[in-house]
Structure formats: C-alpha cells, structure tokens
Amino acid sequence: MIRDRNEMPMRPIELDLTGPEGNAFVLLGYAKRLLKQLDKSPDEIERIIEEMQSSDYENLVAVFEKNLGEYVTLYR
Length: 76
What we know:
- The protein has helices spanning 24-37, 42-52, 57-68, and strands at 13-16, 72-75.
- By secondary structure, the protein is mainly α.
C-alpha cells in the first residue's frame, strides 16, 4: 500500500555523544545541514556555527541544544 508522505511519523534525530556522532566536527556538520533544512538565512547559520566554535566542546553542545534541541535528541 502506498501512503501519503504526510502520514509519516515525525521522529526526532537521535545522536549519541559518546560515539562517533559526538565528534565536534560531526556535530557542526549536522548543525549546518539542519539549519539549512530549516530555511535559516546564511548569516544566521554562520552566526550559530561561530557561536558553537567560540569556546570548548561543552559550549558547542550547549549551543547545538539551544538551537536544534527541538529537532535532535542528544545522549551521553
């Protein structure tokens, strides 16, 4: 049976920070891709990425969570 795409359940993306998905460069890549999919402006994407890179790993995760936590579940 072929169903309408609107019937697909929306599942959050889940990332395990203790594995390869928790690498800072991987998280930056996810952030860029998701922000583009959310139709954020290039300036806004650049601002968020710069904020993620402005300090240590914990800051990167906190900024990721602040901006994309509605769409992505992070696990430690």
